[in-house]
Amino acid sequence: RVVRAENSSSYGSFTASLIRSRGSIAFVAFAGTVLIGTFLHDQPPVSDAAMFAYGGEAILHGHRLYADVWDNKLPGIYLVDALLAMLFGHAYVLWTLAACAVSGVSAYLLYRLLRALDVSHALLTSWLLLVVLCVTTKRVASTEDFAIPFLIAAALTAVNKRPAPAGLLVGIACLFWIPSALMLAPIGLLLQ
User: Fold this and answer.
1) Angle 115-119-120 (CA atoms, 0-180°, nearest 5)?
2) Cβ atoms of residues 79 and 99 within 8 Å
């Protein structure tokens, strides 16, 4: 029938234009990676992540970090886990989804940074970072996962010649992971 052919033809051209759209393909690849990483690692926290979750929940119950709850990690991860516990309770799949979403933000910021530096294959490189963070190494929450977006944002800010926000972002990253301070040297180079 003619009507059906027109509908399938217009549907086909819409689909073809959607597939040709680099942004749509990137969105599907990035969103798919986040979802795969989330459900691939759907399990309660173990090891360090379990301690972070315990510390976060203890904070919600009025305990003081480093006085009532002790670990040698920095406070940023405990505050994030307190927020995750408040929002999602014990639904750890949602904790993992949130951690994968933070990794998605890291990948997006890396894409923006590489574009600002005019690096070829910026999209592929940022997607590979997301694969590494979400699929190959994802845990419920790790300190590095939450430091990375601040470090990449600091580098992006430095590329735009804004030293004060870059330093502040590195300082925030240090609330999660002390080696973040090592980023001050390359950020200083970007500011020149």
Assistant:
1) 105
2) no
Name the helix (H) or strand (E) containing 153.
helix 143-159
Contacts of 161 (CB under 8 A, 6+ apart): 191
pLDDT digits (tens, 9 = 90+) for 133-173: 888 765 556 788 899 999 999 999 999 888 889 989 999 99
The Cα 183–Cα 160 span in angstroms is 16
Q: pTM of the prediction? A: 0.76
Q: What are phi and psi of 69, to 5 degrees?
A: -125, 125
Tokens at residue 10, please?
């217009």
**CB neighbourhood size of 25 (10 A):** 13
Residue whose C-alpha is closest to residue 149's, from 130, 136, 164, 135: 130
How many CB atoms within 10 Å of residue 120? 8
**Whole-angstrom distance, CA of residue 136 vs CA of residue 56:** 25
Q: Which two tokens stand for residue 184?
A: 């001050």
Q: What is the DSSP letter of 65?
A: B
